[in-house]
Amino acid sequence: MRLIEVLDLKKYYASGLINKEYTKAVDGVSFHIEPGETLGLVGESGCGKTTVGRLLLRLIEPTSGSIFFDGTDLTKLDRGDMRAVRPRMQMIFQDPESSLNPRMRIGESIAEPFRLGLRGKISRSEMREKVLELVDIVGLNPEHVNRFPYQLSGGQNQRVVLARILAVNPEFIVADEPTASLDVSVQAQILRLMMDLKREFGLTMLFISHDMEVMRHMSDRIAVMEKGKIVNILDNKSYSTAGVAPNPVSI
Amino acid sequence: MAMLDIINLRTHFPSPDGLVKAVDAVDLQIEKRERLGLIGETGCGKTVLGMSIIRLLQPSTRVLGRIIYKGRDLLALEEEEMRLLRGKEIAMILQNPTTSLNPVLKVGDQIAEVLQLHMGLDKKQAKTKAVQMLVATMIPEASKRADQYPHELSGGMKERVMIAMGLAGQPSFVIADEPTKGLDAGTKSEIVRLIRDMTTDRSMLMITHDLAAAGEICDRIAVMYAGELLEEASAETILSEPCHPYTQGFIHSLPAQGLQPIPGSSPSLIDPPQGCRFHPRCPKVMDICKKEHPSMIKLEKGHLARCFLCA
Hints:
The complex is a heterodimer. Chain A is of the alpha/beta class. Chain A contains 9 helices and 10 strands.
């Protein structure tokens, strides 16, 4: 059973009033993702990869096509039903600072999904316990709970974002260049953490990046996107053994 | 004699929590026509080092030491003398073109401004020359682009505009701050090639955390950590035989080199660790590292490292 099945997905943006011109951001994309699999989506900036990620979670509405999640066509759901599915699918963005509320302490940010999802069904002390558990899982210290995002580094904030995501116990995660704004050394820390979390929680992932080397570490299969279309889907294992020799520190 | 000789540079910022020692006792030389890569994590002080040279820091900053450029101490110059050098002799390609370019001026006019100020061209000549500069950066449809505003250009194109602006005054020394940041792989390799080709007869300090880009462009690489230099050698040596455990860790954290992170995070610049500043994160830490601050040790020709293990 496939967890994600995307069929002929399109997103066109119209510009102009009378002689409308269409920008085909996503132009007929089809793919699937098995449970527990990470599909990499690679391509240059502007190729439409981020748009695909957003369409999958219906953060934006597709022009046409269908998105099956666990057998349900998300494009056919009304707002209420979509809301019920939302906790099962989560997204992690490029810039952790803008993903977090600057006026909320880290602890409050991580507790927020519990507050919304388990309204009244969870006591304060239970909630605090859960927050501390998540803080530990993502490699932060209990002292971070009382700080604000501006007091943490980019890498630490991305850990907070991951804790918030894990709070709702999702099955599927769209990761949109989660380390693009981080240093190489911090990038390695966050990517290693994501690999561990994926294994531990059996997550299925769409991993968006323009870095082929990062892809090789993170993905089982890699979909290559160009100008709104998927031009190729590679098996990561065959790809790495197919002899694209690991090039010592070069572009 | 080196073209640029930085002697015991200390750049400190007063803050409510104490003095932030962003650059702490740095010695560095750059020869004529030499391109030096300055590598390090965010917050290690590398941008502040660049800003100290071109003197673009806030007046409250304490900059001590000497920066000898072609025999003159830049730190001793009057602001007016410095202004004449800036953009003409010494230019900076600022990081983050989206915020560094003026959003309400056409990019061609922004380049022309440099040409009018430093090359004595009139408005019309400057504009023609600005388009030529854009052509040199291989921007497609240069004359059309010159008439556009920054928001109409892609990230790669804006970086090309920054490069054109930086080199417009024909400076002999260029400071490039993270010129490849935020660009995708294809654009990045084009920009790397462009910078390499356009700086062949100049001296350059290239600030970056992209080791691969530094390796492509630079003759030498210096590694900075928590305000000080930890290792310095030819680009080849740094990439293939680094001695300092931090440099080794930095290389191993690259996705192409194993994606093995260095545990922990960079220390505070207000109260850096005693002894070696890297010791709390170092996989090869010894007792002496916790007590004594290692000095820069000369290894083979031109290879310096601040580590007891390299001695």
